[in-house]
């Protein structure tokens, strides 16, 4: 049967992309986590704790944004909460982990989540309701917390020192978290999820060598288990994971999803070698949150034009269009509708925007005189340490190291969600998030330092 005779749409379009088939159009999967609540006037805590409000919000996402696939919940703290982490709740963002039960207690747990624990009864209920309501037309994604990020939730920043001080313990802890991932995948698959996405932001914060030492086998085991369940798999990363794309592919997920820190056309050349689908990577802040509708439409058109295609292809194979990660709560609805328009009518959108120039952040900012500081200045540039796990652990490392110096150092965080901070990052030349600068010099970009290493860097800057 020719492509013209069988034109997959909706769920079938996502499935075809994950099977690496030629496509008539690009699949569209908006990662509307807590943003779903905005469409119905509910805050983040309401949609993450109330089944009816979550279900109502997800149906509105389905109606307004016309997705081929969509996640049910985007919250990387579900497992951590069950396993004993305390959460800090926010009104317009998912909760963050506020305590780490293994921080001073180096043990390896054995308990695996059960369907009746934590918020799982609510989540599984909504998954089943979504499957019944839209599951015939929309691919449903179940998102689970990846083993490295879950280990950091349980252990805190100590996990980064464990890699050097006690690698056997770290491996045992990651192996346990791998079993938690498989258990969560089973529960979500039984509730009807088509795609099990393993979301592990901290993958971008480790080197390829560390990935090979501690993570390549756990991820391979997880994706093999998901395949045996009859579901598709995806590996979600945040931050600049460019250095790890190749080793990520070696774990054999059906797809990889990346954010704006990674050059998607260049990454696709790598994923295509392994015949793995890649997803992304509409910028969350500069386009979706702070841009206008035309900015988002132009980004989509430019991205599709820049992706490599095989001869005769209408659109690139092995590609799913999506935001770079969980959409900010206050993303204007019209911006996401613009993305939908651009992916459904790319040629018409291209003609409409032929002479359009994208929005720029020309806010005037003044950088410190780094040469004449009274004390070391630590600047951490993040997407938002309250909502981004990798950013949160980079900020946590900075807080911990700075505390050893008391008032003798100054520490500032600049969140990418504010226009003036976007302008500041552009002026300083910040390329990736999270990044840590000391006295105006880049020290760490998408790599979280150990406490000893960062303390030494601060001490050297104060001489």
Structure description:
There is one protein chain. By secondary structure, this protein is of the alpha/beta class. It has two domains: 342 residues, TIM Barrel, CATH 3.20.20.210; 92 residues, Glutaredoxin (3-Layer(aba) Sandwich), CATH 3.40.30. The strands form three sheets. A seven-stranded parallel beta sheet has the order 1-4-5-6-7-8-9, sandwiched between helices. A four-stranded mixed beta sheet has the order 11-10-12-13, with helices on both faces. α9 packs parallel to α11, α15 packs across α17 and α16 packs across α17. It is globular, with a radius of gyration of 22 Å. The protein starts with 10 loop residues before the first helix and ends with a helix. The N terminus is likely disordered.
Indicate the structural class: alpha/beta
Tell the overall outline. Answer: globular
Question: What is the count of distinct domains?
Answer: 2
CATH class of the largest domain: Alpha Beta
Oligomer: single chain
Mean pLDDT across the residues is 93
Catalogue the unreliable spans: 1-6
What is CATH's topology name of the largest domain? TIM Barrel
As a whole number of angstroms, the C-alpha radius of gyration is 22 Å
Please tally the β strands and state the result. Answer: 13
Helical amount:
40-55%
Can you list the strand order of the major beta sheet?
Answer: 1-4-5-6-7-8-9
What portion of the residues fall into strands of 2 or more residues? 5-15%
Major sheet: size, sense and barrel closure?
7 strands, parallel
Distance between the termini: 72 Å
Instruction: Please report the number of helical segments.
Output: 20
What's the architecture of the largest domain, going by CATH?
Alpha-Beta Barrel
